[in-house]
């Protein structure tokens, strides 16, 4: 693919093409590559959120290297009752130097790939790779499916326990896990975090999902479900006793209720953050523990989602589409 000229049709990449072109492991590596190349998430533009009658519109621009782009995403909580996706939107990828449009990507599909890829990269950096892990997964929607696939792309799993509000949906995800070869898959309760090596939270919850005191010192928790200052999936007890990692300190201290609520309570201060994803990827901070775990506290990765991540994965999809068209 080249830069789209005047009058030419803009290439469009839909959900099926995005899923076929780039998997979660490749998307995670694309994210790691841009961080290794020196991208500074702290300098990225802020997400713009506009309340609308149907929910919220998000505008997320970014530029890096030879590309730029912007995601326009809609978050429509009422869509579930209509049988429609909660997340909607489009991604416009641009040539960096000229800002000419290159391609239009399905924004919901891009988000469904990008968010689990960010988590997979954190899991790669924070969890041991010399033994199968016991996973407790909170959620049973599209992000839960995507996170299961993403974790499997970077780690072997000994067991997966699904905790969801809907018993039927949780059983559906358990069935999917078994189709992926995870015979030790079952539904469970929040108390199952006590036996987990890895806890992944990808829900729409606004209050903590489990008792953070139950999480073992050797465990890693990944929380991705919220980006609002008053919403959180993890409790103050977990945050206070954990080594906390984020995509960007500025973004986390602006949007992450998981950290802002404990800070407002006086339980932690801004300096509680141990490092960023860039620190982990570049080796400035080492998070992974040996096996058996030797840490004295859990590790928590809190993601709010950032525009540079959408750009990195959109570029990977675009380049893969171009390479695919040439073969």
From TrEMBL:
InterPro entries: NAD(P)-bd_dom_sf (IPR036291), ODC_Mu_crystall (IPR003462), ODC_N (IPR023401). Pfam families: OCD_Mu_crystall. It comes from the Bacteria. Gene3D superfamilies: NAD(P)-binding Rossmann-like Domain, ornithine cyclodeaminase, domain 1. This is Ornithine cyclodeaminase family protein. It comes from Streptomyces bambusae.
């Amino acid at each position: 693919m080249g830069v789209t000229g005047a009058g030419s049709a803009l290439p469009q990449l839909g959900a099926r093409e995005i899923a076929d072109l780039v998997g979660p492991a490749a998307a995670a590596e694309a994210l790691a590559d841009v961080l290794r190349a020196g991208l500074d998430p702290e300098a990225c533009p802020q997400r713009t959120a506009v309340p609308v009658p149907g929910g919220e519109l998000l505008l997320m621009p970014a530029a890096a290297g030879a590309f730029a782009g912007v995601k326009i995403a809609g978050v429509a909580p009422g869509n579930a009752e209509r049988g429609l996706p909660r997340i909607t939107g489009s991604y416009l990828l641009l040539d960096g130097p000229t800002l000419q449009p290159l391609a239009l990507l399905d924004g919901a599909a891009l988000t469904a790939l990008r968010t689990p890829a960010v988590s997979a990269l954190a899991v790669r950096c924070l969890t041991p790779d010399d033994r199968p892990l016991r996973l407790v997964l909170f959620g049973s929607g599209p992000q839960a499916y995507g996170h299961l696939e993403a974790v499997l792309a970077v780690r072997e799993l000994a067991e997966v326990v699904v905790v969801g509000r809907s018993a039927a949906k949780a059983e559906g995800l358990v069935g999917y896990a078994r189709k992926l070869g995870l015979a030790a898959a079952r539904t469970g309760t929040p108390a199952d975090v006590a036996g987990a090596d890895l806890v992944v939270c990808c829900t729409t919850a606004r209050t903590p999902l489990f008792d953070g005191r139950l999480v073992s010192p050797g465990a890693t928790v990944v929380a991705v479900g919220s980006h609002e200052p008053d919403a959180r999936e993890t409790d103050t007890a977990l945050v206070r006793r954990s080594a906390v990692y984020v995509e960007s300190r500025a973004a986390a201290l602006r949007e992450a209720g998981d950290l802002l609520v404990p800070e407002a309570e006086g339980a932690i201060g801004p300096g509680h953050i141990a490092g960023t994803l860039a620190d982990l990827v570049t080796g400035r901070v080492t998070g992974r523990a040996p096996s058996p775990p030797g840490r004295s506290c859990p590790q928590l990765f809190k993601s709010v989602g950032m525009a540079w991540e959408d750009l990195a994965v959109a570029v990977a999809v675009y380049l893969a589409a171009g390479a695919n068209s040439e073969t």
